[in-house]
Amino acid sequence: MLTILGFVMIAAFLVLIMMKKMSPMAALVLIPALFCVLVGQGAHLGDYVLKGIGDLAPTAAMLMFAIIYFGVMIDVGLFDPIVRGILKFCKADPVRVVVGTALLAAIVSLDGDGSTTFMITVSALYPLYKRLKMSLVVMTGVAATANGVMNTLPWGGPTARAATALKLDAGDIFVPMIPALAVGLVAVFALAYVLGRRERKRLGVLTLGDTTLVTETVPENETEQVLVGAGTGGTGGAPAEARPTTGGAGTGSDDGPAAGFGEQAADDDGLQVLDPQRATLRPKLYWFNAALTLALLTLLILQTLPIPVLFLIGAALALTVNFPHMKDQKARVAAHAENVLNVSGMVFAAAVFTGVLTGTGMVEHMARWLVSGIPDALGPHMGIVTGVLSIPLTYFMSNDGFYFGIVPILAEAGAAHGVAPIEIARGSLVGQALHMSSPLVPAVYVLVGMAKVEFGDHTKFTVKWAALTSLVVLCAGVLFGII
Predict the structure, then answer these.
(1) Which residue in 439, 351, 357, 316 sits closest to 22, CA to CA?
(2) Of 40, 119, 431, 450, whose CB count within 10 A is highest?
(3) Residue 476: φ, ψ to 5°
(4) Please, is 325 exposed, middle or buried when counting C-beta atoms within 10 Å of its C-beta (0-12, 13-18, 19+)?
(5) Alpha-carbon distances of 179 from 102, 174, 472, rounded to whole Å
(6) Burial 336-350 (b: 16+ CB within 10 A, else e)
(7) What does the alpha-carbon distance between residue 5 and residue 11 come to, in Å, rounded to a whole number?
(8) Looking at residue 208, what is its pLDDT?
(9) Is pLDDT at 260 greater than 70 in this prediction?
C-alpha cells in the first residue's frame, strides 16, 4: 500500500506542477501533507516535517549566504571578464551561446557545488539569452545536465557517499569512470549543439553589432543599457546600431573589466542589463574579490569547513570590504532578498516532501519493491542494473536516501552473484545527470528562480535529455568495461 501511495504522490506532484495547476512551493507542502493523512500517519506529520527541515536547514543556510555572496560579486563586477569572453565567443550565434552555456557550467562545476554553478552561469548568460530572445529553458536544461555529469567529482557528493556507504576508496570509484563521464560530457555538448541549431532555425539570422554595450531607445522614450546590438531574429527587424561605450566606472577606458550587472527589470519580459555606470562597481577591489572567491572555492573543495559556514564568512567579508558603510550593506542585502526568500522558501517546502516520503516509509517500500522485482537472471549484471535504477531513483530520492539506503541493498544482491561492490558504486553514479533537475535538489530552484523559468517547464524540457545523457554514460561504462 505504501509503495503504491508513494508512486501516486510523486506522480501527482509532477503532473500538477507540469500542468501548472499548482505552484511548486504549494505542491511540495500540500500534496505530501494530504498523503501523510491518507496513509494514516497524520498525527506524525509535524515530526516528519521538523525532521525534514532539520536535515535541509544547513542547505538553506548555504544557499542564503551563497546567493548574497555571489550577488555581491556580480554587483562589484567580478564576473565581467567572463561575460566579455563569452560575448566574444558567442557573438549572436545561438549555437555558440548554447554550447557556451554547457562549457561555462561544466567549468564552474569543478567546485563541486551546483548552486554556485547555476548562480554564475545564469548571471553571465541570462542577459544574452534575453537580448537574443532565446529560450531560457534551453539554458536551464543544458546547465543542469552539464552540472549533473560533473557532479560525480569526488568532492561533489555522490562519489563520496557511494564510497562511504560501501566502505570503498572514492578514487577507486571515480578514476576508472572518467572515460565514461567524458563521453557523457561530450553528449552534453552534442545536445547543446543540436538545441543551438534549433534556436538558430527558430530565430533566423541574428547580427551582433558589437560585444560591448550599446544604448537603445525603448518604447517609453527612455534609454537603457542593453547587452548587445542584436537584431530581432527572423522577424526582419534591423539590428541595433552599435555606439561607442565609455568603459566601466572608475576604469576610464574599455580595457578594464566589462560592466557588471544592474538591477533586475520589473517584469519577466524586461531585460537584465549590464550597466558600466552603476555605483556598486569596485574596480580597485577586483583582485581582492577574485582572491577571496578563489580562496572560498578552494576551501570548499578541500572541505576545510562546512559549506554553510564558508559562505556565511565569505558573504560577511564581501559585504564589509566592498561596502564599508552600513547603509550600503543593507541596500545590497535588500537587492538580493527576493532570490534569497524564493530559494530558501522552496528548500523548506521540499523538506515537507522529503520528510513525509521518508518518515512514512514510502521511500523504503518503493525501493525494496523495485529491487525485489529484479529477475535472478540479471544478478550477474547488477552493476548495469544499478546504473539503470539510479536514473529514476536519484530523481525521486535524495542522494543520501539513495546511497545510504538503496545502494547497500543492491551491493548485497550483487555480492550473491559475484559482482564486486566497486561495480555497484560506479553504476550508482550514472543517474546524476538527471538528479540535478530533481524537485528534491535545492540547487535547481536557484537555477529556475534566477532564470525566471517555471519549474514545470524546466522539468518537461530537461528530463528526457538528462535521462538520455545518463544512458549514454551507462552505455559508455559498459562498452569500456568499467561497469
Answers:
(1) 439
(2) 431
(3) -65, -40
(4) exposed
(5) 18, 10, 12
(6) beebbebbbebbbbb
(7) 10
(8) 54
(9) no
Spatial separation of the C-alpha atoms in residues 105 and 128, rounded to whole Å: 15
> Taking 70 as the threshold, does the pLDDT of residue 254 lie above it?
no
Distance CA 289, CA 305 (A): 20
How far from 65 is each of 116, 290, 349, 449, CA to CA, in Å? 11, 18, 19, 16
Indicate the helix (H) or strand (E) that contains 465: helix 455-479
Q: Residue type for 428, please? A: S
Q: Higher model confidence: residue 214 or residue 55?
A: 55
Q: Give the residue, 464 or 354, on which the prediction is more confident.
A: 464
Among 287, 376, 285, 380, CA closest to 324 = 285
Identify the CA nearest to 35 among candidates 73, 66, 6: 6
Rounded to whole angstroms, the Cα distance separating 350 from 53 reads 9
| Contact predicate 73/293, CB 8 Å | yes
Distance in angstroms (rounded) separating the CA atoms of residues 438 and 243? 44
3-state secondary structure of 14: helix
Average pLDDT over residues 19-40: 89
Specify the residue for cell string 528530463: 463
- Does the pLDDT value for residue 258 go beyond 60? no
Query: Long-range contact list for 16-25, CB < 8 A, 24+ apart?
Result: 17/439, 17/455, 17/456, 17/459, 18/456, 18/459, 18/460, 19/456, 20/454, 20/456, 24/346, 24/349, 24/439, 24/445, 24/455, 24/456, 25/345, 25/346, 25/349
Quickly count helices (H) and strands (E) in the chain.
Answer: 22, 4
**Structural contact between residues 136 and 450, judged by C-beta atoms closer than 8 angstroms:** no
Confidence tier at 252 by pLDDT (50, 70, 90): very low
For CA atoms 222, 227, 231, 234, the dihedral sign is: negative
* pLDDT band with cut points at 50, 70 and 90 for residue 434: very high
